[in-house]
Amino acid sequence: MRLTLSDADWGELWQEDTTIAQSDFSEQVCQFSGKIGRGSDRYIPLRNGLYLIICDYQLWEDVTLDNLSSYDYPNYLCISFVVSGKVRTIHHGLTDYVFEVPGKNHIEFVSEGRETEDWSAGDRIIKIRVGITTEVLREMSHESVATLPKELRLLVEERELPPFYRLETTTPEMYMALQQIVNCPYQGWTRQFYLESKALELLILWISQANKLDKTPELCVLSPSDIDCLYRAKDLLTCNLRQPPSLLELARQVGLNDRKLKQGFRQVFGTTVFGYLHDRRMQQAQQLLIAGQMNVKETARLVGYASQSSFNAAFKKTFGVNPKALQRGVKQ
């Protein structure tokens, strides 16, 4: 049975056990436990306006968390990198459902709005958050503010920042830095400097990637009719996971040109056409395997994979477990 909780419900079900100063650098670990699971937030303040937060949660029950957000203009930038687990989230009126899974990172700003998150029982959610104050970011960029990604540029210039949610792919270089943070071999001041260097590395890698993506053409103007076409494209993909149409064929079927389909799909749904197709395939595969009606080979074929090894690799990257292991766990 899935629990649906508000912010207030969520807070009441957790009890903070301890807040522990871990080092001379004011590193803190806040540990939580409650009726629905356990978790911890490790806050690591660094020099130069930088900080790291390592979040580690595991729930005992399926939970849907319904948030009503209300934030002032942010005085910091925070990028969240998913290391383990999966959360399905939607910012109502801003994105469709997106999957925050290993291999993805996200940054967001929603001054007011509603967000819904779906957490699965037993799934261990680990995220590493890299933050920096806008004041320090402004000083670091100095006369090169114009070269920052558009959201960061608006942030440091204290201009109006419209609501946004940006989900990107974590590169192999980012992944290596994340693993080095998790497995930091040092203590004391050497640990502090090591983590600071890795936080800066992640920030630089993310900004570099965002700048490359921002060099793509400007957002296209979408009419209500265009948006209806994009929703039809999404429905066509959902109904044809095994043999989806090509981009050109999909564009023709819904009455859009190739460029408007690709750019518009990302604008409306927060992911690419192929990213959405992949997520839907993985979601359906997970449901089929849990139901136990098909074996792994049959499931792979049904969701459009000719190669079982490719399916196994994609499934493990998405959910952190092999499909056979998932099925064995359900049967036990």
Automatic annotation (TrEMBL):
Span of domain HTH araC/xylS-type: 231-329
An example molecular function term from Gene Ontology annotations: sequence-specific DNA binding
Source organism superkingdom: Bacteria
Pfam families recorded: HTH_18
PROSITE patterns, sorted: HTH_ARAC_FAMILY_1 (PS00041), HTH_ARAC_FAMILY_2 (PS01124)
Annotated InterPro entries: Homeodomain-like_sf, HTH_AraC, HTH_AraC-typ_CS, PchR_regulatory_protein
Gene3D superfamilies: Homeodomain-like
Alphabetical UniProt keywords: DNA-binding, Transcription, Transcription regulation
PANTHER family assigned: REGULATORY PROTEIN PCHR
Name the UniProt record assigns to this protein: HTH araC/xylS-type domain-containing protein
